[in-house]
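Please review the protein record below. Tell me whether the encoded fold seems credible here:
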Amino acid sequence: MHRRDDDRDWNPPQIEGGGIDLRRHRPGNLPTVLRWYANPELARLTRYSLRPMPRDEVERFFQTRLLSSESVAYGIHLKATGRLIGLTTFSALDPDNGSVLLHITIGETDAWGHGYGTEAVRLMLWLAFERIGLHRVGLSVFSFNERAIRSYEKAGFRIEGRLREAIARDGRYWDEIQMGVLRDDWLAARSAAAASVTGTGG
């Protein structure tokens, strides 16, 4: 990893974006998270089981994964209003190989399709590559979730492989797609974006 040991801000309490902010969770977020995980459509898009996550399982996840000071986990808040619309976390951190898995859920369905997920992913990639100093960020997504795949591709992820017909949904089988982005990819994309902005100013 390229993590700077003298940089104590590798897991900041808040990361500011353009339209959203990522903020560390607080106990008062639990009722909202419980409501999200009771939504069957959310289960269809994100869980191997079609059954919504049981309440006690959500509460355990919230306490151990979202509230823990040891976790890299954030609530996704609209910048203009502070409304909590989703969550994002890292898991399976592998410091020896500089890799981690990314998870993101936009729980408020009226916030879908507005680019908030793409921005949240970009902020998490900044954290992974710029602050923590990782080499690779990976994720998995079901092949029927085309909106999420487009969002990940906009953020820089590439399709690396697939588990064929691993998910049963809607009367048929679908692939589970493996995606990833490397630090060099992210740096190159950032440099290209900066060059494009500089070029338009001339």
